[in-house]
Amino acid sequence: MSTYDATGSAARRPFSGRRARAGDLILQGVAGLAALGAVVLVGLIVYKVVQGSRLSLSTFGLGFLTSTGWDPVHSQFGAANLIYGTAITSFGALILATPLALGVALFLTELAPGWIRGPVTALVETLAAIPSVVIGLWGILVLGPVLRDDVMPQLHSALGFIPLFGPSSSGSTIFTAIVVLTIMILPIVSSISRELFLGVPAELKEAALGLGVTRWEMVRGVIFPYARGGVAAAMILGLGRALGEAIAVAQVIGAFNGPIHANLFFQGNTIGAELANEFSNATSNLELSSLFYLALILLVFSLLVNLLAQVIVRRVARKQGLVAQ
Amino acid sequence: MSSADLSVLQRPNDRLRRRRWVNRGMELLAWLAAATAVALLGIVVWSVAKRGASELNLDLLTKPQVAFPVPGGPQGGLVNAFVGTLVIVGIATLMALPVGVLVALYVNEFAPAVVRRGVGLTLDVLNGIPAIVIGIFVFGLIVVGHGDSGLAGSFALAVLMLPLVARSAIEVLALVPGSLREASLGLGVPRWRTTLGIVLPQAVGGIVTGAVLAVARVAGETAPLLFTTAVGVSAGADWNPTHPLASVPVTIFELSDQALESQHAQAWAAAFVLLMFILVTSLTARWLANRSRRKLQRAA
Amino acid sequence: MMGQVRGDLVSASSTIEQAVRVETKRQPLPPRERLEQVFDIQDLTAIYGSKAALKGVTMDVYKNLVTAVIGPSGCGKSTFIRCFNRMNDLVPSFRQTGTIRYHGQDIAGKDVDPVAVRRTIGMVFQRPNPFPKSIQDNVAWGLKVLGMKDNLSERVERALTQAALWDEVKDRLKSSALGLSGGQQQRLCIARAIAVEPDVVLMDEPASALDPIATQAIEQLLHELKSEYSFVIVTHNMQQAARVADMTAFFSISRGAEGERWGELIEYDATEKIFTAPSDKRTEDYVTGRFG
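ok -> structure tokens follow
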């Protein structure tokens, strides 16, 4: 601290000198330890998951990813249909949620009268606060029966020639899971998109409107290109959320471990759902290790997704810096 | 020379008319999207409220759980789940809050820029790990050697809370004006006292609301608890965290898979209580956060 | 041609006088009866929320002239000009009374589509705002959307030529517009606006963000282009108005009994008259620099 002190003796500042420096070092040390702990934690998580899957990794290797079926009796475990189910439910949800989310974001930034904006924004964000188990409960007991009795049969009779829309018999299907996941990722994609649209400079919008183009043409020609990168990042974050969602999917997807099929209106399974349903029931070490293997796949997916989103966000931020002159 | 057709203002040509229709169509779609989102929220909340509120009674919060209820027989309650959640979430908060605040202090007050970005990246990565993987991690770390327990569940929840608490604390600490720090340091007060005595108290409001939001987030989490603390071990209220404890989300998860109407009813009721708790807590915390943020900005 | 010169005006406004006198490019104004009316403004009042920004503006704007709007800041010049292309509609609290007739038709009428208005009455803004697209796409985008896709590249070249930018960018049409200098960007914005063949071009302080050389280029454009378009230009720079404008409207701030302020049209006449022999004392005070 200051060596020049007009008022005098060290007695007036009892915490100066060595004790103060000790205090600084202690605080910095403890806080630094906490930060280090966070980093170590991530490493520990990766380590533990890899360690748990070692048995299964050595037994099945990468073939785990291509074989199907979960058979504890014959010690045969494969992840292919789980990976397929995870991909189809997550991408299906993304396909449904993205246009909805963009519509909501456009509504909130361009169309809504002032007094509506606040409440609707809050409502959409509240959707994100509903716990997955509650949505799953609603999915089984409310959504499932409606889909089973009305929606799926109608879609099947209308579009049944496409194998995606095959016959249905139960409310617990891949389609149910897609709808549930759509509800869960809608808030993320829409709130990020909303922020992006708000960030489009007003002068660009005015320039377009001044030429005599309609509002939609301005959105298409100015807002969308400007927000393109950010929306991509939002979609990827939504995808990541869908990939990692285990509980709600476990409740509504029907836990089907048969061969891969195309019918959306039939039961299916995902990695997360399998983990949620089967982890506590694992009978052998190999099965447990295979479940860890599944967790490892999920971990790798989510890390990659996270990384991709970060890269895009960084690239967008740099472009923004160039544009905002 | 201009091709401006003055009558265009009153008699639009075909092209303009088509563009106007497209525009109107798109506006309609946007309105529909917003209506759908709001309707979805309404439907879910309404379902939970309708079915849950009617089943709500004091028994739910006081009676022990009946493991294999018979139709017509005593249904019991879910006191074990509510007590369990209270204990588990409470301990998780005690674990995550100090660590989160310390991480935030380190990032804001001490860390060089590179380290700051590294820790920020770590927090983002931690945030992005699916809750079920965290549950499996804690299983491998603690449960394998020491069995299920409420503490293991708390630890798993704390791992989930850490990035939330740390990020919001970082934001709030960054809002504390540098002039306050300078004033304190200028008086000769050492760095650690400035941080703990001046900076931290200024940020306390925001840190608390961040913690409350994290609690609301984590109170509804099922996956981290599934394999770290079991359900149905104790039917009555158990306050001992070293035992495996029931919890509300896990109980709802288990009940939702059962066949009995009465069990569904209990699931709805528990879901209603959980949802109400989360909504009220989140909204209150957010409102408080806005207030304290405005206060800090005014003080700046 | 100069009219009578008042003694005290000579000393204070000599620079403006010089500008007006030296302006050999200035054609003498045709007599009023031969001027074709483009805008007929009657008792225009513009209100934001509960506060009036402008009150009771009545004037005519004429074809193929440069009409300047001058006045101190806060007198509603920008609001005024934005009434012509319904840009004020973008502000939710805006209301307008009175009429603006464009070739006889009320542009704020119920059955009039602002989109159609803006196509015919274009605008160049204060700060250059090119789209983050290539130079070519900046000009071509409006053309494509508005259905003027035939001979697209020729239209683009013509607009850029008219905006005196073609030679500087013809070899890099595909490069980003954001790489141009401020003056070039503003000329690009002018090209973008005139590419869609408007009748009138509104300019809201188009050179205020530019350096003197770029400003000069823009003013030169106004001279060259007014045979094809009619210009209404807001400027806070009196010398600029003296240099480029045929007609000048002077707005000022009026105050009410309870301290409310609003803008009013004080005087509107040929530029020479406004600067050398204004009828209203407030005009005289402003152009001689005594206030504002």
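The first helix of chain C runs from residue 7 to 12.
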